[in-house]
Amino acid sequence: QVQLVESGGGLVQPGGSLRLSCAASGTILSINVMGWYRQAPGKQRELVATITRGGNTNYADSVKGRFTISKDNAKNTVYLQMNSLKPEDTAVYYCSGNLRRLGGPRSSDYWGQGTQVTVSS
């Protein structure tokens, strides 16, 4: 019953910015943690950033100081503000969450379909 939908990806020049959004549909009872992952061509999927229910965040070393993860509890939405983008940031970005839905007996993991981010001049 829960669906995660990413948006905001696209083509941007080096040094530019993008803001990704991930909206969770369905009635969400609680969210334990939300995160962003990315996978570049020929590379393993890697963690970009996470944010817990309490607001604690962590980032991959490669994006520290440039990316910011945040959330809007009322909208069940998590964001990833990406600044000073580099060509090596090019990847498919995936939203993931561990949450409990209405009617669900336990928390479960969910994944979005991914959104393409391309950084190129």
Helicity level, as a percent range?
Answer: under 10%
Mean pLDDT: 95
Tell the overall outline: elongated
Query: From N to C, what is the helix and strand string?
Result: EEEEEEEEEEE
Report the sheet-strand fraction: over 45%
Regions with little confidence, pLDDT below 50 for 5+ residues: none
- Major sheet attributes: 7 strands, mixed
Gyration radius (Cα, Å) is: 14 Å
Taking the alpha carbons of the first and last residues, their distance comes to 40 Å
Instruction: Write down how many β-strands occur, each being a DSSP E stretch of 2 or more residues.
Output: 11
Task: Give me the secondary-structure topology.
Blueprint: E1 3-7, E2 10-12, E3 18-25, E4 28-39, E5 46-52, E6 57-59, E7 67-72, E8 77-82, E9 91-101, E10 108-111, E11 115-119
Model description:
This protein is mostly beta strands and 121 residues long. It is 0% helix and 58% strand. The chain is built from no helices and eleven strands. The chain has strands spanning 3-7, 10-12, 18-25, 28-39, 46-52, 57-59, 67-72, 77-82, 91-101, 108-111, 115-119. Strands 2, 4, 5, 6, 9, 10 and 11 form a seven-stranded mixed sheet that branches. A hairpin with a 4-residue loop joins strand 7 (67-72) and strand 8. The radius of gyration is 14 Å and the shape is elongated. The mean pLDDT is 95.
